[in-house]
Amino acid sequence: MLLVLALFGACIGSFTNVVVWRLPRQESPIWPGSHCPSCGHPVRWHDNVPVLGWLLLRGRCRDCTAAISARYPIVEAFSGFLWLSALIPALRSSNTLLITLLMGLVLVSLLLPLVLIDLDHLWLPEPICRAGVISGVLATALLAWGGGSERPESVLLNHLIASAAGLLVMEGLSALAEQLLGQPALGLGDAKLAAMAGAWLGLGGLGISMALAVFSGAAVGTLGRWTGRLGPRQPFPFGPFIAFGIWMTWLMGAPWWWQRWLALMGGT
After folding, report:
1. Which end of the chain, C or N, has fewer beta carbons within 10 A?
2. Radius of gyration over alpha carbons of the chain, in Å?
3. 10: which residues sit within 8 A by CB, 6+ positions away?
4. In whole angstroms, what is the distance from residue 232 CA to residue 26 CA?
5. Phi and psi for 16 in degrees, rounded to 5?
6. pTM for the full predicted model
7. What are the pLDDT digits (tens) for 11-46?
8. Taking the domains of the chain in order of start, what are their residue ranges?
């Protein structure tokens, strides 16, 4: 099972590379098939095997010998690792193991392209965020009714409210920050990603995921400015930190993170 998960995850990582390249250029991720961006020659099926194809080609196009970025196999391998990590919450949910695993795979497969596109273009595509909100609501419904929750309709309502709250609060903070700083501090894509967090995690999980996003983003931003890699008002993507918070909360659960916080603060 581990091998199958890793292989399929790497294949999804290969498709993620296509989406990340084409979507910002308003190209279809489906048609035409994979081809070299330098010479346009279609990639042979055996050269398109995740990670292994790049290694066998030694990072060069078979037809024009143009260099192929090492980012491609790195993303493929990382996607496989993320798929394996989806087993962590699934194994804790023995009665809904399969549903939890499948939903986790959907979630991480949506988060990865969002992270990469935001890193490249400071943009979080609305279609992927919208798909994330819809799939989050469906996943909540499946887990609530399939897991035998006492009041599944209350669970679903909690997640719907969390999704709306994530969107509205982030949009409000974005507008306030723009008024105070005179320039945008948060993009509207960040608000849509927060709505996705609420749909998947509920109110408690939304709070935990956003706290993780703020702390990790502040740490990286401070380090970047301290080392001179970021200017005083230079923007940097916040989406990857929200995605990090979402995935960490999904993996360990909001109660686990809350207990760690209480322990850190000296509580019980």
Report:
1. C
2. 20
3. 50, 51, 76, 77, 79, 80
4. 32
5. -60, -40
6. 0.92
7. 999 999 999 999 999 988 888 888 888 888 888 888
8. 1-85, 98-268
